[in-house]
Amino acid sequence: MQARVKNNKGFSLLEIIVVLAIIGGISAVGVPKFIDWSNKRTIINSTTQVSTLLQNIYNTTERGTFAYVQVIFNSNESGISIRTKGITMDSLAFKMNDLSDAWNQGEPSSRCSIIPPDNFWDTDNIDNQRLRANIFELRNTDVVANFDGQASICFSRNGKFYYADTAGALGQGEQPDSFLYLMLKTEKNMRCDFPTPDNSQDPIIPDGEQDGACEYLGAVKWTRFGEITSQRWDKRRNSWYYM
Description:
Elements (H helix, E strand, L loop, with lengths): L12 H50 L5 E9 L2 E9 L1 H9 L31 H4 L4 E4 L2 E3 L3 E8 L6 E2 L14 E6 L7 E2 L13 E2 L8 E5 L7 E6 L4 E4 L1
Antiparallel strand pairs: 1-2, 1-5, 2-3, 4-7, 5-6, 7-10, 8-9, 10-11, 11-12
């Protein structure tokens, strides 16, 4: 009885080349689109995260947990961090009625100083768990702000007190700046001519010095009354979009 001969024929060189060419073509089209989609999602998520945090911070004044809150931003090449401090209703009333207190000394903007006088903020040394639960901290290593260093904004209930540290990037002029710009940490974005914040109704349109710059940007806008919104920059359409 004659044994059957097995057919162990493999792929030919031509077939392998065709398969590799197909894979290469799909990768050439799909990978850049996926990276672009991923970067857009990252800047959207990061901007929304900061916007939500600011809204939660302002809500602590509306609930009466704090009468006055400070938001401190710190941005450097490794990312952005945000932390808060607060003064309770009773403490603020005491400060306002004590003419010797630091609250009543110097320019009003000094009430939002990043380096405050001793015992200025109730949250610097507290054992009250309720207050500690309303101290917010955030760290995001995917984005940086439109400045390098520290800046602060201060809010109060009903917008009565609204200041910024004049030594920080958001304290230029008599009124605090109303925008925080966020930039995804990519090589192209690092060549971006980043917008300068101002008090206009809409974020400034960025100006890319080189092709491909200013691609992945977000903007968080606020008012003294706690109206906080977020937007994303669409480079292809050359405009900002609300998220």
